[in-house]
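Can you make up a polypeptide sequence alongside its tokenized fold?
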Amino acid sequence: MRPTTQPTIEDATARFLLVGPIGAGKTTQLETLPGKKCGYLFDASALEALAVAGVKGEFIEMQPQGADIMISSIRKKGEKKGDKADGREGTILRSDAYNPTLYQDFVNDFDERSEAGWFDDFDWLLFDSCTTFGKALLERVVYFQEMVDRDDGRTDYQKAGTYMSNVIRRLTSLPCGLLVTAHYESRQDEINRRITNQFMMPGAARRYVPLLFGHVFICKHAATGGKSKYLIQTKPDRENPDVRTSLLGLDMNQDVTIADMSKPEKYGLGSLLAKRKED
């Protein structure tokens, strides 16, 4: 049995899950974190957001090369009807199916870089975002599920949720800090009419993935007096029960606006981490 040691702040690897709408400043917070940065970019606007913020690093864009835009029915009794590539209507053969490879492209790239120790040279990894990554993953699952005539399409979401949880768990095992972004959608419970913000992740991933992070924040944007202000919700409430952090002394809605882009580490998440080490 390995001897136990008392963990310290210096030993802890920070893991942030930032959830919020488009334009809430999630991706830009990477600029406030010190050290060398890398990342996987699944969102089409991620690279532009990083460029505007002046974030420097090594980023891998993971964008789909195509999409299935042909309308078709669900498969029943082994048969699927719809529009074919030649412009006719008819039975969609399995050989006609669009083969989405983005998820597998990511897995191959990640495995190759992990085995080569590529991530060891970086202090922070950005994964932007779970939402678009989840769509690519689900498309891959559906592609294979269609091959076996599964009876219930809900199993697609269950399998996708399991794989997403496994991927994020792999990311948390890397020797660098982790910043993952995601989006939410508001849902109202049909029985108690309670409204909660559910993370846009497939299956059980929306419950399991937040458990892998020490800091889960809801990102918000507010405009006052013609100036933009960016906030993170740091404590849970009825609408956002998954929010949590081990950082002490934060406001319910903490201001993380980067007031001076020439000194980003003095603001946002970077300043909160620096203050924790000082304390």
The longest helix spans residues 154-172. The helical segments are 46-53, 102-115, 130-147, 154-172, 205-208, 268-278.
